[in-house]
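can u do me a favor
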């Protein structure tokens, strides 16, 4: 018996798998929406790498790395949480809902980070349309990790300071899957 029925509430037992399936169905319906329905992914505002660096240093933004674990390996973003990747949100919306609820309650603007910045457009639109985030509180890193990598190379002192703040090692030059690599350009 469900908790409600056991407590004398008489409510029917809720099947978690049914809730998971309903959440996945909502994502599929959102993906097949018509043009003009919901948030236009192009309406997700951007921050430059410099603006994001300043926001991270001051604690005024909340960074979310939406890349998958294999994409992040050896190429971490300083201070970003990794608990709600793009695929987590898309494939496990019910399970990830609690994490997203905590993100939504955070008073700082959420800045989504992906390899090139493109995936963040859809990520942001999903957060707004499905998880009740406000458009003015969801941003994306302009140019993604590729732009961030170039910014780090051009701003070694601030980059080192940010990386030290979050216990990351020095910027690794010449990564085989870093900006400009054949893997990322494909």
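np, heres the sequence
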């Amino acid at each position: 018996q469900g908790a409600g029925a056991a407590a004398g509430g008489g409510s029917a037992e809720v099947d978690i798998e049914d809730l998971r399936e309903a959440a996945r169905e909502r994502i599929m319906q959102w993906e097949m929406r018509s043009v003009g329905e919901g948030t236009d992914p192009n309406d997700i505002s951007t921050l430059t790498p410099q603006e994001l660096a300043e926001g991270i240093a001051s604690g005024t933004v909340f960074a979310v790395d939406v890349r998958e674990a294999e994409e992040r390996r050896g190429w971490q973003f300083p201070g970003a949480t990794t608990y709600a990747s793009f695929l987590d949100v898309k494939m496990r919306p019910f399970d990830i809902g609690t994490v997203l609820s905590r993100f939504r309650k955070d008073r700082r603007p959420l800045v989504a980070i992906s390899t090139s910045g493109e995936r963040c457009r859809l990520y942001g639109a999903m957060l707004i349309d499905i998880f009740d985030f406000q458009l003015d509180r969801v941003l994306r890193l302009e140019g993604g990790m590729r732009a961030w990598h170039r910014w780090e190379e051009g701003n070694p002192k601030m980059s080192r300071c940010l990386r030290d703040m979050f216990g990351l090692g020095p910027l690794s030059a010449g990564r085989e899957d870093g900006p400009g690599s054949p893997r990322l350009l494909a």
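The longest strand covers residues 62-65. hope that helps!!
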